[in-house]
Amino acid sequence: MMKFWSLFPALLAAGFAACVAPAFSVEPSIGILNADGDLAVTSAGNPVVRNSLGDLGIDGDESAPGVRADLKWGMPHITLETQSADWSGSGSASNFGGIPGANVAVDSDLEIAVHRGLITFDFVPTDLVEVGLGLGVSVLDIEASVSEQGNPANREDLDEVLPIPVIAVRAAVNVWRFEFEALVTGVDATIDGNHAAYYDTDVAARFRLFGVGPVDALLTAGYRRIDVDARYDDGGDSVRADFTFDGPYVGLRVSI
Question: Which of these, 55, 142, 140, 35, lies nearest to 96 by C-alpha position?
């Protein structure tokens, strides 16, 4: 890893020195994300009890708007993206942080936004094929609230912004009016006793609808899956989160 970091400035300079006109694109999208997994919030001295998102009432499919921007110039390919979704519902919780007891009726909310900035370097710099390796950061913005029904003062809240450095792998191919792309990022690390495993897989197919001068419009259909396994301390609580968010999306890419 240290060798890769030492080569990073040289690769960046070489890529931008290439005599290639930059290509820029922006792609708004709307998708559906399904939330699955479990969550444990444990106060000091209490047993660890994992509550499934389904039991808490915050599972199922929800709309997930997003937007992505790409800049490619020679070897470097930069991607900036954000997507968000929120869930709410009613269920039951058992020994969930400050809500003691078994099968306590609760109202729950979960909001998550995933932001990421990536840079990969294309080792097959042709117009037909792209194979790139790079790095970046994904930021998880998680807000969750679980409160006892009839007693909203008895509640447990989570408000976390988790920046996660990731390795990125990108592969793409152009065939006629179609573009196919797979973008995979991930990391598995333990720092100061806190553990995080994060994997984000995004596959997409794009069809070029039309071009007007230097501007192309492409219709996108894709699928995204985000796996999060995190264990960390939040004040006096110990948090264990094991989430999966996945679903299809469609978008419209405008490329210059």
Answer: 55
Residue 256 maps to a domain: no
Helix (H, G, I), strand (E, B) or coil at 9: helix
10-19, 101-110, 137-146, 228-237: which has the minimum mean pLDDT?
10-19
Nearest to 53 by CA among 92, 14, 80: 92
- Do the domain assignments include residue 18? no
Whole-number Å distance between alpha carbons of 250 and 256? 20
In a domain, 56, yes or no: yes
CA distance 29 to 37: 25
Nearest CA to 166 among 140, 143, 185, 144?
185
Write out pLDDT tens, residues 73-104: 989 999 999 999 999 999 999 999 889 899 99
Quick check: is 47 in a domain? yes
pLDDT tens digit string along 219-241? 999 999 999 999 988 777 899 99
Contact 63, 31 (CB under 8 A): yes
Residue 32 maps to which CATH number?
2.40.128.90
Nearest to 138 by CA among 158, 167, 111, 110: 167
The overall pTM is greater than 0.85: yes
Range of the domain at 228: 2-13+23-251
Identity (one letter) of the amino acid at 205? A
Pairwise CA distance, residues 205 & 196, whole Å? 30
Helix (H) or strand (E) holding 134: strand 129-148
For residue 83, give the nearest of 22, 166, 38, 27 by alpha carbon: 27
Strand 51-52 versus strand 60-72 pairing type:
unpaired
Look at the chain and report how many structural domains it folds into: 1
